[in-house]
Amino acid sequence: MSDTLEQVSSVIVDVLKIDGKGINMDTRFIEDLKADSMDQFFLIDGFSEKFNVSIADEDARNIKTVGDVVKYIDSQKK
């Protein structure tokens, strides 16, 4: 598991209060993790805080999977 994926998973576990087993790059927030719109807001906020990045609303709307977040964060760190 990549470092970014591991840290993203820890935010997901913290925000959604789940055990985190089975979270991978293909995991979908709505369909697989049952995140509602408020959960998604708190997840984006958590990712922004954890990685010290700003995620624009337009970008946040395009984030559907864990892999989307990992790729976005990795692209912002460069």
Describe this structure in words.
The protein is mainly alpha-helical and about 80 residues long. The protein has one domain: Orthogonal Bundle (Non-ribosomal Peptide Synthetase Peptidyl Carrier Protein, Chain A), CATH 1.10.1200. The protein has helices at about 5-15, 35-50, 55-60, 65-75. Helix 1 (about 5-15) packs across helix 2. The mean pLDDT is about 95.
Radius of gyration (CA) equals: 11 Å
* CATH H-level superfamily title: ACP-like
Count the DSSP helices: 4
Beta-strand residue fraction:
under 5%
Largest beta-sheet characterization: none
- Shape descriptor: globular
Level-1 CATH class name: Mainly Alpha
Structure, briefly:
It comes from Leptolinea tardivitalis. Helices cover 59% and strands 0% of the residues.
List the helices and strands and how they pair.
Blueprint: H1 3-16, H2 37-51, H3 57-61, H4 66-77
Helix pairs in contact: 1-2, 1-4
Features:
single chain; about 80 residues; mainly alpha; Non-ribosomal Peptide Synthetase Peptidyl Carrier Protein, Chain A; 4 helices; about 0% strand; globular
